[in-house]
Amino acid sequence: MNNPFFIDYNQPYDAVPFSKFKAEDFIPAVEKSIELALNRINDIVNEKNSPNFENTIVALETCSEELDYVMSVYWHLFGSESGDELKSLAEKISPMGSKFSNDILLNSKLFNKIKHVYENQNSENLDDQDKRLVEVTYKRFTRNGASLNEEEKNEIRKIDEQLSLLSPKFSNNVLKAQNQYELWVENENDLEGLPDSSISMAKQEAKQKGQPNKWLFTLQYPSMGPFLSYASNRELRKEIHVAYGSLCNNDDFDNNQIIKEIVNLKHKRAQLLGYNTFADYVLDDRMAQNVSNVYGLLDDLYKNCYDKAKIEIEELKQFANETDGLEDFKPWDQSYYFTKLQKKKFDIDPEMLRPYFKAENVIDGIFKVANKMYGIQFNEVTNIDTWHDEVKAFEVLNDDNSFVGLIYIDLHPRPTKRSGAWMNSIKDNGLYKGKVRRPHVQFTANLTRSTEDKPALLTFSEVETVFHEFGHCLHGLLSDCKYSTIGNTNVKWDFVELPSQIMENWVSEKEALNLFAKHFETGDNIPNELIQKIKDSKNFGQANMYLRQLSLGYIDMAWHTRLEPVEDVEQFEKNTLEKTALFEKVKNTTISSHFGHIFGGGYAAGYYSYKWAEVLEADAFESFKENGIFDKETAKSFRENILSKGNLKNPMKLYTQFKGREPKVDALLKRDGLI
User: Fold this and answer.
1) Taking all residues of the chain, what is their mean pLDDT, rounded to a whole number?
2) 469 annotated active-site
3) Could you give the C-alpha distances from 39 to 141, 295, 304, in angstroms and in order?
4) Which domains, and CATH codes, for the chain?
């Protein structure tokens, strides 16, 4: 077959030849890959010998290698670099993937063979990884309806086909709505308060649109965030705040009906599988275990932060009144006066830090931190394809020069890229074509760009984002498992944020900052007094940040525990957030309509996991603080017990192997100033 997906281009490291693929290549590649995989499934089913680990479990593990490759490339490009033509393919590719998955998971003859291996595994000479693969495979089938009757299986198929269309449509709508919005400023006076970096970026955006005498602001965070934090023009702050809050809510790209269809279908699916709600289904296979435990965590944190959050808002209101005579404090005033009050109390604001966080230096910094912790090295490679000329690729080597993997880094916004920041594996560590291969991972972000007069200078928050996503990358890169199903970041969802969130801690540590935080013009290290100001101001407004995260967790749980269909998305959300609200609701704004994590991504009934993992990471980081943030033995233990193990064991066992005990919430509350 003359398709680039089936041609060996002899790329170094067997890297993906991104430049070789065109939109028209994907559908034929998916069709051919599915055909190959289903033929192998038939071979497993028709195998005359008694089912065993090799002829059933391993054969299943490796049956869809070609399809996994094609799908990985497609969905990566779907989020990172795709125009309308490539995006439109999701309407066909997603249902094809869903049907294929169900053709396997609902195959009774195949399941019977897997069940036989599961029940007789002690008769084989299996190691721990083999046994874990058997267990995970068996559970995957039982949790997805392998034991249902044919009528119920057909219902599952219909539901999954519909869901496979709805989630990409939701994400596409958000991207289109975000790209459509433009805030044009013609009067220079309306730029009052904005930092030079923000003004330069807006000027550059306008020039690219053929309007060199104007300034253009968008809903991309590097544009919107500084505008809300610094712009003196209150009406324009309101405009951009409301524009973001009303994305995909009763506009040209309305997502409300899609949301209702998604949650109704997921609810129906869960009930077919014997669960009361979709959240019950999801949590049955998570560290949290059940709905009660999730609400227990959210409510516990809520009790510790709500009153403090109210006090923080009252302080902002009083400050706004004293400063500008403002009496009707609104949500679009919060970031603005927060920044001003932070500057007054701690003599610090995000713009003061930007000169020390040149993007290239930050990337160099994460490499240096990883090197000091794990002994790994990063070398840029320029002889492989990437999906855009802004993307950089690096080989990763152990201290003995053995190959760890590849990492691609894509930092800045484009109209062809979805918002936010994320990591994904392009090639997993695990068995592939008879050998255990090393992983290729990437992280994509939408961070501040360079301007005509300055390089890309990041905010402190953006630096935290880089370290966060890099933590995910380390989890993927340092995986050391025989099988991809139980390796890489394929862990329980409320465990997956531990490796990412723990890395954010290094950004506030002097020893780490001195490795890379240097003034982009002078080369001077970030001053000690500025580092101290970062630490002193770290918990300022923390209760409100907690409340925001808890609100998202409550919305997620409300959608996935409700028993009756929802008629009005906006009203449902308002009722859900009544207990966390600190402002009167702004009409026509919702979170759900653009909440990609739960309706376009994999966080449905799982958004709580950010806070769940924060408990783990704060507790885990205490060990690094006690022994030294670059202590090699502590880092070795974290690598061996957490990063390398994937889903080889129950995550609580992995955690206790590292820490010596189960986690305690006290470290998190203490660190964040809530106790």
Assistant:
1) 96
2) yes
3) 19, 45, 56
4) 4-105+107-147 (1.20.1050.40), 181-245 (no CATH)
